[in-house]
Design brief:
By secondary structure, the protein is of the alpha/beta class. The chain has helices spanning 2-28, 31-53, 63-102, 114-136, 177-189, 213-216, 244-260, 298-301, 319-325; strands spanning 143-151, 161-166, 194-197, 226-228, 264-265, 269-275, 278-284, 311-314, 334-337, 347-349, 353-355, 367-371, 374-378, 396-404. The strands form 3 sheets. Strands 1-14-2-3-4-5 form a 6-stranded mixed beta sheet, with helices on one face. Helix 1 (2-28) packs antiparallel against helix 2 and helix 1 packs across helix 3 (63-102).
């Protein structure tokens, strides 16, 4: 789908530059302004090409590369808000001019709408400001989201269980220690019994975590403990390795750093959580995604788990839920995932509507979903990746209240 859309995207970006030059000349009447703009455009494009050409492919994405991506989005995306409306207006203008000239045999005044021009310029400016806000403030604008889920078969002793979920830390992207510590303070202020981290600890390298382990250790440990699973980025598969041994050493170090940070890492295994005479099972599956690495083994993870036990599954990629979990002969009452980040872009009107382009890729991309008596909650991510910002889809701390239907 992305491959099909990309050429259209490039066409409208190019049109955006043409329209931008036209509007600059229209309002300034100075060719020097056009020349200066084109010089700036060429400088940015050449700088980006040289930067990405010289990037160390053994390191992967860094905080620096994500800031560069944010700069590129800032310079290009607002142009879409200029090019798309003006392009369709030009189609209308051309159709109108043609019909009057060749059918009605008379000419009409065919100037561009001043109102539309002002609207698109205002919208592009607002969008540019929004991107800047997302880079400076939005990526650390942590929000606590709460959901109450009612189950018929939740054991009596766990009625009222409070689970705090975080996901997609991507510690290699972090560039503001004070902001991260503020996010951890928000976690510690919550009242929860169990803390679950659903994968993507790093971007690629184990060393990304070195400056942050002590900070992560400040996350309080609740009475039922802190558990983690791996995400697709935790396998080190997005860079070139000189040897398989180096890749494996990095993988082992990532797992060790997760445990150093205070989490018990579950690798296709389960643990029993007991309260009085009741128990629930926590299952931690390695990464399994329809379009990503399939290291997860649900059968192995479920070994020795009673068929009718109450189960909470941690699996990084929500596509795993539809593909294997929800229709499994075992009943997995609650699944917790992350991975999508909500694409770090969208808009949200509380209690009314939330939209992100992630919904065109993942049926379950953010929040709570239900099929029959089974649920999945998809956390929108604590960190960020690909570009250094979040617009509308803010970093998330999830607090889930599990209730028994009485």
């Amino acid at each position: 789908m992305i491959a099909k859309i990309f050429p259209i995207f490039l066409i409208f970006i190019a049109l955006g530059e043409i329209y931008t030059c036209h509007l600059l000349y229209k309002y300034t009447k100075k060719r020097s302004v056009i020349f200066a703009y084109l010089l700036l455009l060429a400088t940015i494009i050449i700088s980006l090409v040289l930067y990405y050409k010289g990037i160390d492919k053994s390191v992967g994405q860094t905080s620096e590369s994500m800031h560069i991506m944010a700069l590129m989005l800032l310079f290009l995306l607002p142009k879409l808000l200029i090019s798309i409306p003006l392009f369709f207006e030009d189609i209308y203008r051309f159709t109108r001019w043609s019909s009057h000239k060749f059918i009605y045999k008379k000419l009409v005044k065919n100037t561009r709408s001043q109102l539309l021009t002002r609207i698109v310029l205002s919208a592009a400016t607002l969008f540019a400001v929004t991107i800047i806000y997302g880079v400076i403030v939005g990526k650390y604008n942590f929000k606590v989201r709460e959901e109450t889920i009612v189950f018929n078969d939740l054991p009596e002793a766990f009625d009222g269980l409070k689970i705090l979920q975080i996901s997609d830390l991507h510690v290699g992207s972090w560039d503001n220690k004070a902001a991260i510590e503020k996010g951890i303070e928000m976690i510690n202020k919550q009242d929860f019994d169990l803390l679950l981290f659903t994968g993507d600890f790093v971007n690629t390298l184990a060393t990304e975590a070195d400056p942050w382990i002590e900070t992560l250790q400040k996350i309080k440990t609740p009475k039922y403990g802190k558990y983690a699973v791996l995400g697709n980025h935790d396998y080190g598969e997005y860079v070139k390795w000189n040897t398989e041994a180096a890749k494996e050493a990095n993988f082992m170090a990532i797992k060790k750093n997760i445990e150093k940070s205070g989490f018990q890492l579950l690798l296709n295994e389960n643990v029993v959580i007991k309260n009085s005479n009741d128990s629930i099972y926590l299952l931690g599956v390695e990464n399994w995604g329809v379009n990503f690495k399939k290291a997860g083994d649900l059968k192995e993870t479920s070994k020795n788990v009673p068929l009718h036990a109450f189960k909470i599954v941690m699996t990084h990629d929500p596509s795993h839920w539809d593909a294997e979990i929800v229709n499994h002969q075992q009943k997995y009452q609650l699944t917790l995932s992350g991975h999508t980040h909500g694409m770090q872009f969208g808009f949200n009107i509380p209690k009314l509507i939330e939209w992100s382009p992630a919904e065109y890729i993942y049926p379950e991309w953010g929040g709570l979903y239900q099929k029959g008596s089974q649920y999945i909650y998809v956390n929108r991510g604590f960190g960020f990746h690909a570009y250094s910002g979040r617009i509308g889809i803010w970093p998330e701390i999830t607090l889930l209240h599990l209730k028994k239907n009485k």
